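#struct-queue
[09:14] JT: dropping the first one here, sequence first, then the structure tokens:
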Amino acid sequence: MADRKQLEDRLKEIGCNFRFFARPEIRELANVLMPNELVQHCVIGQYKGVRFIGSHRSASTSDR
């Protein structure tokens, strides 16, 4: 698990600070990252299902 504050700082540093979008995904990303893993790229998007519209965040890291 990574520190959420450090993760948010890193996202700001690489220009991926989406303040109001995908906040739950940021919390979950902090849970799945290893302590020394560093986010390198990040994108946010939307998808449309048959009954709903959702959003997602994809990230690449130093290890994955």
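[09:21] JT: and here's the second one, same format:
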Amino acid sequence: MKYKHSLPDTYDFEVEDLLGFVYSDANNNPHVEVMRIIADGHSGKATTGEYDRVYLVLVGEGEFTIKGETCTVIKDDVVVLPKNTDYEYRGSMELFEVNTPAHTHE
């Protein structure tokens, strides 16, 4: 198991208005997935599925809509989403995302 993860070792992905960098996934640790998300727009509707998910706002500001309730987020705010929660977010922000257990991408 790898304990330290650096940006040059990540793999990236793009979805909607998001650019993501995956630091650790189920291939490295089945218990946790860690990524950095750069959002400039709208995430689209999502669900946490079988994963608990935490977002830390590193930079910027935006809005999360969780089960129909909208809240404004700014730098240093944390959003905690239990499994099977519908949500979406929008704004111009950089997020640190943690999923547990690790999300499997099939």
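[09:30] RK: nice, looked through the second one.
[09:31] RK: The longest strand covers residues 52-66.
[09:31] JT: good to know. Residues 30 and 104 are 9 Å apart (CA to CA).
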